[in-house]
Amino acid sequence: HSKAVMWPRSTCGTQPELTPSPHPPRQLLLLGEKVQKEVKAVLTESATLTCEVAQDTTEVKWYKDGKLLVSSRKFKIETLGKTRRLVVGQLEKKDAGEYICEAAGQKMTFKLEVKGEQCPGDVEQEWCGDQGQQAFPDP
């Protein structure tokens, strides 16, 4: 026969009131000048979005058009010291859009633009170049 398990009774409604902190929230995201907020990339290549944080331990979440991203073959989420990176691989037209790096409610927004032409009806070749010219010709 099993012993009766005693669970502590619920203490609903007896929790202390949370008082607002006198200190302003710490800056978690470093919105530095060196951060590129508009990113241009080429079809079938990869794009890297970089977000600097104030501490090595700061966790960030990445969103694409409001949807939470998880690490996968398509999206690689990397942590390196105080740098948080999202690498979007094998770019397609649908990857263009708004990406957000979020740390504890603070957000940084990136706009990703994908250049190049999708080949009509040709599954093998993923993008059509202009007769072998580079997508970004040298100035």
Summarize the structure.
This protein has 139 residues and is mostly beta strands. The chain is 0% helix and 38% strand.
CATH superfamily of the domain at 45-118: Immunoglobulins
**Which stretches of 5+ consecutive residues score pLDDT under 50?**
122-126, 130-134
Give the number of DSSP strands: 11
Order of helices and strands: EEEEEEEEEEE
Structural class: mainly beta
Q: What CATH architecture label of the domain at 45-118 applies?
A: Sandwich
- Class of the domain at 45-118, according to the CATH hierarchy? Mainly Beta
Percent of residues in beta strands: 35-45%
CATH topology of the domain at 45-118: Immunoglobulin-like
Shape label:
globular
Adjacency order of strands in the biggest sheet: 2-9-8-4-5
Helical fraction equals under 10%
Biggest beta sheet attributes: 5 strands, mixed
Give me the Rg, rounded. 23 Å
- N-C termini distance: 83 Å
Overall pLDDT score:
77
How many DSSP H or I helices? 0
Domain Ig-like: 16-113
Region (Disordered): 1-22
InterPro entries: Ig-like_dom, Ig-like_dom_sf, Ig-like_fold, Ig_I-set, Ig_sub, Ig_sub2, Obscurin/Obscurin-like_Reg
Protein name: Ig-like domain-containing protein
Task: Lay out the secondary structure.
Blueprint: E1 29-30, E2 38-42, E3 47-53, E4 61-64, E5 67-68, E6 75-80, E7 83-88, E8 97-103, E9 106-115, E10 117-118, E11 127-128
Structural commentary:
By secondary structure, the protein is mostly beta strands. It has a domain at 45-118: Immunoglobulin-like. 0% of the residues lie in helices and 38% in strands. The protein has strands spanning 29-30, 38-42, 47-53, 61-64, 67-68, 75-80, 83-88, 97-103, 106-115, 117-118, 127-128. A hairpin with a 2-residue loop joins strand 6 (75-80) and strand 7 (83-88). The radius of gyration is 23 Å and the shape is globular. Mean pLDDT is 77; it is low at 122-126 and 130-134.
